[in-house]
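FAQ: What does the model actually see?

It sees only this:
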Amino acid sequence: MKTRTVGEVMTSEVVCASRQTPFDDVVRLLGRHRISGLPVVDHDDKVVGVVSGTDLTHGSVATTAEELMTTPAVTVHPEQRVPDAARLMERQNVDRLPVVDEEDRLIGIATRRDLLRVFLRTDEEIRRQVIDEVLVGALGLPAGAAAVSVRDGMVLLEGRLRHRGDVPVAVRLTWRVEGVIGVVNRLGFDVDDCSNGSAGPPEAVPVSPRKGPSAPGSTGQAGRE
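And it is asked to produce this:
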């Protein structure tokens, strides 16, 4: 299962400002390019902050981009996976992420629109991929070994697998499917191949609360890989 990276979806031509860019010029840049924000870089092209439309409304006494900007900037690297970047964007409540190299120099911008292009998939497409590539393809399980349902990108896994060790693998690989924003694990197992036990109840993997819609009948918790 190939998951695209930020470097594959980012925009390489970036509208940016320097620390000394005047307030009026920042406003003109945003309006001319019809963008809601831009990164601020130093003389070495390193990102030092980001100016957004919100900063403009709150920065009436500011005269330069440096006085307007929010810092430190939330940035990503080009090799990061698109789903991870999308979750970072949601967690930080930002609409764009400057993309930087290993020396924090600006090389691109990833907007919410760029990342959402990856997630323009139907729930049925996601469900089919989880069954075909995760359960059947990767784990070698019969197609009906587990029930998979998807609602707005949230995947619910239910049923009993043969081995306990297959449960976390199924959850981890499901997270890697493009378009998945969360995984609710309700899988059980028949044989505990991770210890000396045998049959057991549904096995839980570490969970963390997530924002957004929940899977059918879920509690709103999602297993992270």
